[in-house]
Design goal:
Layout lengths: L17 H13 L24 E9 L2 E10 L5 E5 L10 H10 L3 E5 L17 H16 L6 E6 L1 H11 L6 E7 L3 H7 L3 H6 L4 E2 L2 H10 L6 H7 L4 E6 L8 E3 L14 H9 L7 E6 L7 H8 L2 H7 L4 E5 L7 H8 L4 E4 L7 H4 L5 H9 L2
Family: Belongs to the AB hydrolase superfamily.
Organism: Cyprinus carpio
Pfam families: Abhydrolase_6 (PF12697)
Length: 373
Amino acid sequence: MASERSSAESSDPTIISGTDAAANSMWEESFDTENHGVSSKRDYSPVSWSEYFEMMDDVVIMSGETKDVFRVYKSGQDGPLLVLLHGGGHSALSWAVFTAAMTSRITCRVLAMDLRGHGATQVRHADDLSTQTMSRDVANVVRATYGEIPPPIILVGHNVGGAIAVHAAGGALLPSVLGLVAIDVVEGSAMEVLHSMQNFLKGRPKSFKSIDHAIEWSVKSGQIRNLESAKVSMVGQVRRCEVEEGDSSEPVSPVTESVAEGHEEFYDLSYVTEKAESSASAEPCSVYSWRIDLSKAEKYWDGWFRGISNLFLSCNVPKLLLLAGIDRLDRDLTIGQMQGKFMMQVLPPCGHAVHEDIPDKFLVPIHAVNTQE
């Protein structure tokens, strides 16, 4: 059983919801009361993973003569193990702010991993994004990190990561699973929006001239409403590429990983910003593009979510479903909730990346999963 640690309550002025968030954002950027109305620019510079996690590691999974390398971030030395699985297109860094808040209040261990095809993970067949393959990846990484008998495990997943967590728990791929937490992943609503996913992906910018601009876009577009989280999370979503002069829309030739995703504690920010904003004398120029093209994974989308509600209900462990709205429940989950088959909490209004927008709201319900008999 995890024990709570005493700590001061924290608040993040960037965590606000609905129309208030947009209004507040415009106010902050257009009017600075401390400087008598003079406009002040918000800081969109990236922040290192080491501000939130204790350790970064590459876990090698051997298969014959080949190997897959999974990037993981860890914190904590005692207590149950929270295995954190991010959503499609995101990375383990999306759990950074949540991890710092959780480990400061609860005695636990955290393992956040970059899923296949995402973040800094390097695998053969990176385009195999089936739930079967990715759930096996999770089991392999946990086994390689903690041995055949790992600590008691709570699987926590957001969106696609939630579906993978359900498959890992339902398939008994991991020993000693103590609980399951699915964040804003419901079969019914997920299947309804799949038809519009391609349009959503096409509507995003193809590239950014710097990490700072990627972070700024993520906040202003509402993809991540918490600026603190965006500053660490977006580094795992984009990577530096080189493009020929005059062709900034179609980045090619990814640059070596040493700047943005190597083992250095931080990236070379002076190089990032100066290179991106320099004159045409630097050829080719640098831009930042998405690490994964989710549009090419369309054949897996249906398999991520179809049947997930019943599989979630059948998992024989304490379960928690965290939702951004009660209207997202489908019929199977509605009946299961009425029968008391799982705990549910509806979160305050927030965006899609709910664990990034309001990380403090997750601490008590996830702790409740660990303590449920």
